[in-house]
Amino acid sequence: RDPQVCESFIDQWYFEALLTLAARLNDVHITNAVRLLIDFTNLKILVRARNLGLNPEAFKLFFIPHGSVDFAPYADKSATLALVERLSRTTLASVASFLLPENAKRSMTEFELVAHNTQMAYLRRPQMSRRASNAAVLTYLRALESEVVNILLILSAKQIRLSAEDTLWRIHDPFGVSYA
Which among 66, 32, 68, 57 is positioned nearest to 141, based on CA atoms? Predict the structure, then answer.
């Protein structure tokens, strides 16, 4: 019944499926892209916990395994600066900055936008688009991610008793179909 617990299980299943697909393709660039998506998801967990004033330690079990960074040691609030420093010279730097105290008032919407733009920039790198098969797989991954986001959106809308009309216009369609 709790959308955040549901989201955690869906994310874990989703990323497990993506890693399996990446392993079957035997493509290091696809595998690295999936690991990066896992890292963004784990950062989102930390930022969300901080924004809600919750102890991130309680969120350790929600971290998605097999990213490029093990986030569990950084769940404690005192380790936040160490994590930001560790990520400062990586693709995750702009998103990790949301964990800094001076950025505590920034919204999750802004976080999601920065994370999405950073992910898209990574996926547009030349080594990701050299092979046509990469482009097809990455398009599929983004569409699958949109489906997962829509499921979570619908679950949350049901929980707060949002009308079907109000829910429909919030749905993200990766194929450009209008639901409204």
Answer: 32
